[in-house]
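Final paragraph of the annual report: two paired records, presented back to back.
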Amino acid sequence: MERLVWARFGRACCAALLLTDGMASEPELGATPAHAERFDLVVASTTDVHGRIRGWDYYANAPDLTHSLAAAATIVDSLRSANPGRVVLVDAGDLLQGNPLTFVVAKVSPQPVHPVIAAMNVMRYDAAVIGNHEFNYGVPHLRAAMAQAGFPFLAANVVNAQGKPFVAPLTIVERRGVHIGIIGATTPGSMVWDRDHLNAAALTVSDIVPAVRRAVADARRQKADVIVVLLHAGFDEPSSYDTTSTGLPSENVAARVAREIDGIDLVVFGHSHKELIDSTINGALLVQPRNWAASVGVATLTVEQVKGKWSVVAHRGLSVKVAGHREVPDVVAASAGSHRATVAWVTTPIGRTDVVWRADSARVVDMPITDFVNEVMRREGKADLAATAAFSLDASLDTGRITMASLSKLYPYDNALRVIRVTGAQVRAFLEHSARYYRTLDASGRAPNGGIVDAAVPGFNFDVLTGADYTINLTKPIGSRITKLEIRGRAIQSTDTFTLALNGYRQGG
């Protein structure tokens, strides 16, 4: 049986966590009184934090208390106060990249201890799984960060050239005599997105499901009473890469893991930047907190001892938004040096503009802001063509001073510049693939029910090409929509060759 309940919860529905003074005023969260035969374990979780250690928007250089790991720490402290000795704290990956602070730490002003790790050490995390963005700045950067952590990073499906685990597949923690096996696994999509970094370190990210199945069996052999699986993988959404051409397994398999592997009590997952609370598949509770440290997932597992063996007899999930909660000073202090360095970097002026540049129509017509990005890539790479995604339709460059923050906001997930050689046939195929973002119109140009955009194709997969003139005819079927494709008035032939500048994420597949 599968019971799926999608929900977002705010403070109003969390009577058990009325945090007016940083402490829980109603310590019933955990419900069952603790005694020898039956009590509640509480698993608190975060995911896809992407450097949001404190409530600060580096793009606007202003406070933003809707996203803050330091505020999440207040929630965790209250859980521990209400459930002494019964709380486990975990993270489902994508910690070390994703905002200007993580970029500055990696590329501009390295710190003695990575600020994300320092904050997590203060919060006393028990385990984290490696996310795909952990590889973005290279494996040496990841190794250095992991070496500073007071908790293990896990990944059952990442191995080196000898087939040995890159990090531990699992760890076992103990709470009041109950042994909790925590297993980690991460999306194989990293073999597309960070192929160069993984190849340089001779690492392979394999299929999640069989790796977790082996780790669950191993945890049970090690006498784990409760099994918690941390996945950096979405629920069951389509993969953002072509699994057929790449030969890679799906990136979003949390539902499959719960459905196909018996004996799992809780799956905490992330990657897809959604929120899923209090859902059950095959007896396992599934929880996905909101990304960017916007909420804390709270899974309550009631355990009971029968004939000397502990097992989970009931469970429930809850989400607590961080908005409105005070930040823990020690967690804020953990990022003090990197915060100052990041503010200095994002406020550095690099130019000015007398007009507003917007991206709101960038997926419909040529927009200067997209052409600007492509032209910089094309000139820097000395390429014939350049392509980039209209990543966010909310992106803009406002009048006046342009800072590093202004540019960083256009593409928050930075990538390396790549230049490749392509044929005319590949350019056409590339544009046809991009045009899948739109649904097919009828002969009169009317959109089908549901609108013109295919919701199954993410907007960040719609690429815009600079250096060529082309027309997308949406009355044509998918695969035959590029009806004009020219360079300087000459039709591009299939056998022509060009150099194409693009980012490393797209070049990887």
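The closing record of the year follows.
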Amino acid sequence: MDDYGRDGALEFDVAGELTGEVVVGIVDSDIDGAGPDAELPAKVPLARYAQPGPDWQHVSIPLGDFLDAAPDLDLGHLIKIVVEGSAEAGEGTIYLANIRYRTTAPEKVYPP
């Protein structure tokens, strides 16, 4: 993911009915940080990009927004994507589909 940098984006389709705030995050394993290995999350509010409803919506979150939320995030060590909500259990449903990373940066060329 280092090659994607700020030109990349986390993209997905979302639908559902929710109460409370929902955040989307990516998590770095932080294997090269000081001290013991730990997870370093970078989270942004989903409402900044979409308001989920009954119809599917396409969402594109720039990787730069995650880097702004957690400047120490290392895109080379991402281990998971997280979706968290503040609603009580049973108060909402969210569906995600077509989760992918995309970039407009030129592909790096490596020798054979």
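The helical segments are 63-69. This concludes the annual technical report; the extension proposal builds directly on these records.
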